[in-house]
Specification:
MetI-like fold, mainly alpha, disordered N terminus, 277 residues
Length: 277
């Protein structure tokens, strides 16, 4: 047990207190997002008290203009923002890894074609095209996720390709080739494990960008339809209450800010860990 504790302390030694706090916050946010339906929360779409109640012991974050509990709505809003963001990142990493690895391993004409395709997806205004696609498909969180995932893989493809090309010239990769290791075995056992730390750091930092994009879509009314408690939509629908009942629009906007900052700081902490490894 003592050995494991020492190893854990050594691993987190390069992290500042701010980085540690951010990683703990990311863990807490993920836990809330996963367990929100199982927590002792009121139904986020039903009226449970009088409208416009200020934060109190009965309703810790008050109630909204209909009388719904704000704590429950924000907890479910975190779920509807955080988990879809992770899905977009996961799809982008998978597609980007497949495209980048194929180009790096195949080389030649295939690499050239895939590189041009990747460049095309990088230079086009992906957010605007995704916005148009969601408008055509109709409001819905999974429509937004699907539209964003189509364009979110390109940067990962470029990074995976460049990292694999760089890693393939390192001594351990050359030794593996001399030992007769080629093809998928070489890629999966020797190249990808050395290339993936950079991709993992990029993905962690990219979560904040996806959260902002999803929140923008929901702010414009293209996310989950009302009365689902999506953070961007909650902010947009209650802006008229800002001067009279400030907590109603401010709390979901603050939740978005906390999610974005936690993801960015956790990404910085992960990058520090990778550099020190």
């Amino acid at each position: 047990m003592t050995i494991w504790l020492r190893a854990a302390r050594t691993a987190v030694a390069p992290l500042s207190r701010l980085d540690m706090a951010a990683m703990c916050m990311v863990f807490a946010v993920t836990l809330i997002a996963i367990t929100a339906p199982y927590l002792s929360l009121t139904d986020p779409v039903l009226k449970v008290a009088e409208p416009y109640q200020a934060p109190s012991l009965h309703h810790l974050l008050g109630t909204d203009d209909i009388g719904r509990d704000m704590l429950s709505r924000i907890a479910y809003g975190v779920r509807l923002t955080w988990l879809p963001s992770l899905v977009v990142i996961a799809i982008g990493v998978v597609i980007g890894t497949l495209v980048g690895a194929l180009g790096a391993i195949a080389g030649g004409v295939i690499d050239s074609l895939l590189s041009r395709l990747t460049d095309l997806f990088i230079v086009i205004p992906s957010t605007m095209i995704a916005l148009a696609a969601v408008t055509a498909l109709g409001p819905g969180i999974w429509h937004t996720v699907a539209a964003m995932s189509v364009f979110w893989w390109a940067w990962y493809a470029r990074m995976v390709r460049n990292e694999l090309i760089s890693v393939s010239t390192r001594p351990h990769a050359e030794a593996a080739r001399l030992a007769g290791t080629h093809g998928a075995r070489l890629l999966l056992r020797y190249l990808l494990p050395a290339a993936y730390p950079a991709v993992l750091v990029m993905a962690t930092l990219d979560v904040a960008n996806v959260i902002l994009a999803l929140s923008l879509f929901s702010f414009l009314g293209l996310g989950a339809p009302a009365p689902m408690p999506e953070l961007g939509a909650m902010t947009a629908r209650t802006l008229s209450d800002l001067t009279t009942h400030w907590w109603i629009p401010i709390l979901p906007a603050t939740a978005i800010f906390v999610l974005v900052m936690s993801a960015n700081l956790a990404g910085d902490g992960l990058r520090s860990l990778m550099k020190s490894a």
